Amino acid sequence: MNKTKLIGELKKICQQAGAAIIEIYQHDDFGVKEKLDHSPVTEADMTSHQIIVEGLQQLTPDIPVLSEESSEIPFSTRKTWSTFWLVDPLDGTKEFIKRNGEFTINIALIENHRPVLGIIFVPVTNEVYYASDDVGAFWESAEGEVKPIQVNSLHQVDAVNIIASRSHMGERLSPFLTHLAEILPAINISHLGSALKFCLIAEGKADFYPRLTPTSEWDTAAAQAIVETAGGCLVDFNFQPLTYNTQESLLNPPFLVLGDKHFSWQAALMPVLKDIAKT
Fold first, then answer.
1. Residue 106: left (phi > 0), alpha (psi -120 to 50), or beta?
2. Distance between CA atoms of 114 and 38, rounded to whole angstroms?
3. Domains in the chain, ordered, with CATH?
4. If 0-12 CB within 10 Å is exposed, 13-18 middle and 19+ buried, where does residue 269 land?
5. How far is 208 from 206, CA to CA, in rounded Å?
6. Chain centre distance of CA 110
7. What is the Cα–Cα distance from 6 to 117, expressed in whole angstroms?
8. Cα gap 180→152, rounded to integer Å
C-alpha cells in the first residue's frame, strides 16, 4: 500500500477513535485509574486503543502494533520487528482530564528504528497533521482544507518562540530557559499539552521545544516524522535523532525539538546541556 493511501486509511481510524474519545469527554465520569507508574489512564485511553489496534490489524495484518496500552510486549519479541506501528491512543491524558482540549491521537510507522510516517489527530477540532518522506508534511482542517506545512526560518528574526509542556515542566527547565534568555536576542515562551507542541514547530508557529522530563517512545514517534518532514529535527543532547525499539526500555532520553536546523543551536545550547547532564 502506498503512503498516500495508507494515510487516508489512518485518518479514518483516527476519526473513529476520536469520535469515541469525544463521546467519553462529554461525560461527567472518565473512569480515571492509576497505572503502575502513577500516570492516569481513562476509559477514553482504552477505548481509543481498541479501535486503533483493531483498525491497524485489519489495514496491515502483517505489521505488529505497539501501543501505550499494550506496552508489556517483551523486548525479546519486539526486537525481531523491522517494521511496526507505534501508537499513543490518547496523548495528553492529564489535559483530557482537565478538559482543556489539548490532547491528540498519535500513530507512527517505524521502519528500521526510524519513524517514516506519522499522523497526529486532534479530537476536539478534528484537525489532522500527517507526514511521510515521499508524501510531504501537511495540516488538514475538519472541513477538508489541506495545507503543506514547514518549519520557521530563524534567519534575521527578532525573537525565538519557545513552546514548553503545560503539565510536565520539571525543575531543570527554569534555569534552561533563563540561559536561553541570556544568549538569544529575545524569547517568547508559551505552554501547551500533548503532541500539539510538535505540531506548532512543524507548522512554523514555534521554533524550539526542550523536553527534560521523561517521555516514552509513543509520545514522540509520529511527531518526529512530521517535524522532520517539515524541515526540523528531534534530537537528544548529543544532537542525534531519536531512534525506536532499540532496547528493553521504551523511555526516551531528554530531547530537543528544533525548527530551523540551520540555526546555531548546538553552539548556543551545549554549555547549559552540559550543566543539565550533571544534575
1. beta
2. 29
3. 3-148 (3.30.540.10), 160-278 (3.40.190.80)
4. buried
5. 6
6. 14
7. 9
8. 18
Say what the pTM is: 0.94
Round to whole Å and give the CA distance between 113 and 86. Answer: 11
**Which amino acid type is present at position 45?**
D
Q: DSSP for 26-75, please give it.
A: TSS----EE-TTS-EE-HHHHHHHHHHHHHHHHH-TTS-EEEGGGTT--H
Residues 209 and 225: their CA atoms lie apart, in Å, by 16
Backbone angles phi, psi at 187, to 5 degrees: -130, 145
pLDDT, tens only, 130-188: 999 999 999 999 999 999 999 999 887 788 899 988 765 557 777 778 887 887 778 89
For residue range 18-63, what is the model confidence (pLDDT) as tens digits?
A: 999 999 999 877 667 767 665 778 899 999 999 999 999 999 999 9
Residue closest to 65 by CA, chosen among 88, 90, 49, 85: 85
